[in-house]
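An instance noted here:
***
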Amino acid sequence: MATPEFITALRHHVGTAPLWLSGVKVVVLDQRGVLLVRRSDNGLWTLPAGIIEPGEEPAVTAVREVQEETGVRCAVTHLIGVGVTAPTQYPNGDQAQYVDIVFRAEALDELQPRPLDGENLETAYFALDAYPQLPPLHERALRWALAPRVGGYFG
């Protein structure tokens, strides 16, 4: 995952100390199923996701991250839920934990997704009954998105 410039600037001051950051996960659905990406850093299939830039609306982040990572244009339909990730330590020693804002979105075109930003090895739509194993918080986000419940889920 590319590190946003504002985090690089913060790291100049705080070193590897824990940072509390905000991020989004996006469940993009269309007639083909759910849009997933296979990350280049760990090889795992996940939902498109990313860090919210300072001053950026979370739903705008969701649309931007999906397009930057896959080339797919989407529209956020609603907030699904909010949770918190476990603390993370990256290979370089940086520590972070994220408030995790999950959105549901629909694809606006039928383009074949493709990895665009170097963060992912592959992108693809998967049928909802035949997608690869996802990390637990991504699985939870997909489960939340497909549930009939009205309103948000929390942690």
Remarks:
- The first helix runs from residue 5 to 14.
